[in-house]
Amino acid sequence: MQDKHYDAIVVGAGFAGLACAHQLARHGLAVCVIDRKQGLGERVHTTGILVQEACDAPLLAGMPPALLRAVPHVRLYAPNLRSVRLGADGYRFHTTDTPALMRWLGEHAETCGVELRRGCPFRNAVRTPTGWQVEGVGRARVLVGADGARSRVAQRLGLGRVKQFLHGVEYEFDGVALREPDALHCFISKRFAPGYLGWMAQTPTGVQAGLARRYRPGNTQAPDMAGFLRHVAPMMGLSVTRSPDSIRAGLIPCGGPVGPMRGDDVVLVGDAAGMVSPLTAGGIHSGLRHGATIGRMLAGRLSGTASSGAPVAPPVPGFAFKRLLRWAFDHGQFDAPMDLLLTARPLRRAVEQLCFHRRGSMTPDPAGAD
Q: What is the pTM of this model?
């Protein structure tokens, strides 16, 4: 079969890869996205929880409202299950019907001119005088690796690789409701979530419950979802005996940006580049932003509109403060102090800064103060 020629081939049809491809296509460039999955809603490895800023991403313009549910508050729980309710005027998180959202994003990208090849895994790429020859796909002037935390593009082409992870597991319960559906429930517990936290939220289709813990090489222990649910489900209005309708799991980068992130006519974006907050592990917003920024910069270069000497990739955040907090959380997480300090003003302010960018405040608690 004759090779097809593209301006860019993007490996991975997640948020970052599609955001990058979307920008390239908007500038009239020929772009192909390949993904190993036959259906983009299969084997999803993201929570699908969007911060408010992510909803303004160009890729999400026109997203069907039925795929979203606004969640205006955060309820933070200490290990002893005492809690405080937080919120900020005008600020919302959004849960999603994540499999349906990923399918819609793929279809939306195609309507914008992106060629999307489902069921097409990345095997290898060989350097050519004009770019890259991607095995089984074609030739491209540039190659973008957006293939997740265990990027095969990074592995094959000698780029930086993610080395620090969280291990996350998430259950979906269809057609059920939380007692407090307007809050993102976050549980701090060294017992169940060392190095991170557990969470529950109402979604457009039911309830999402998740748990993540620090991943250590050689330690294959998975998060104890069964124990976590026995611990918190009754107070949330869920049946302990209810089996999940779907389960997803995977590794989440938490070590900050990788290096090198780019080489000759190749660049990593999103999770593959480690563009995930080392502390909160939030990667959708940063992936959308990073992918779109790389897409615009590549478009300027490929179309000849970029100024001479313009960078191929934007400045990379160092996440210095969040790396420090990540170290502290890894080495100084103890349940007893959290039980005592949950409602203390310094801790509350730190949570508000992370969740609402300093715009947060304690909100009236419909269930009564704990």
A: 0.89
Residues 6+ apart with CB under 8 A from 355: 74, 86, 88
CA-CA distance, 113 to 4, in Å (whole number)?
Answer: 16
Structure tokens at 354: 């992370």
Q: CA torsion sign, 253 to 257 to 260 to 261?
A: positive
Tell me which amino acid residue 58 is.
P
CATH number, domain with residue 203: 3.50.50.60
Q: How many angstroms separate the CA atoms of 340 and 150, rounded?
A: 39
* Peptide bond just before 260 cis, omega within 30 deg: yes
Q: What is the pLDDT of residues 23-73, one digit of tens each?
A: 999 999 999 999 999 988 887 777 889 998 899 899 999 999 999 999 999
- Count up the domains in the chain and report the number: 1
In a domain, 182, yes or no: yes
pLDDT, tens digit, for every residue of 158-211?
A: 999 999 898 999 999 999 999 999 999 999 999 999 888 899 999 999 999 999
- Domain assignment of residue 367, yes or no: no
Range of the domain at 48: 4-362
Q: Which of 120, 140, 118 is nearest to 131 (CA)?
A: 140
